[in-house]
């Protein structure tokens, strides 16, 4: 009789894996909308949800992909390419700040993380873009990296809250 190994997965592992794949899929597909007022809130909501349900590491991994995909698929203007690493870092700031502060209060986490991401991207874009781009192009890109970042992050926080409240009732209080 042959020896057979049986791999048993815990239900939580399966649920987390499925959740990760679904959130990764949403974050990957969102840039295809080509419209920041739609894409931004979807991506940010995905990051808030991932941080709440899957923890910081998984959320950061998910946060690295949307900008990379958008740039490689030609969805972001090539002039924005120098900002991609900063967008990734901005997403990381959002996730880490939110994860830390949401344990005290969900809205404190959303607002603080959104403001920190906005300040970081606005500051980085002001420096990087002015060094690398012509004045008229730099202004347009700087606007993309300013108040719309704050608005889409806050909107994403609202969407995430509603999603977590409806589907996970206690999800907004989950500690990972």
Write a concise synopsis of the structure shown.
The chain has helices spanning 11-29, 36-54, 56-72, 84-102, 106-132, 135-144, 147-168. By secondary structure, it is mainly α.
Distance between the termini: 44 Å
User: Tally the helices: what do you get?
Assistant: 7
| Sheet with most strands | none
**Weakly predicted, low-confidence segments:** none
Regarding quaternary structure, what we see is single chain
Strand content: under 5%
Overall helicity: over 70%
Overall number of strands: 0
The whole-angstrom Rg is 18 Å
N to C succession of SSEs: HHHHHHH
Structural class, please? mainly alpha
* Mean pLDDT score: 84
Shape: globular
Would you write up a description of this structure?
There is one protein chain. The chain has 176 residues and is mostly helical. 76% of the residues lie in helices and 0% in strands. The radius of gyration is 18 Å and the shape is globular.
Keyword list:
176 residues; mainly alpha; globular
Write the layout of secondary structure elements.
Elements: H1 11-29, H2 36-54, H3 56-72, H4 84-102, H5 106-132, H6 135-144, H7 147-168
Helix pairs in contact: 1-2, 1-3, 2-3, 2-4, 2-7, 3-4, 4-5, 5-6, 5-7
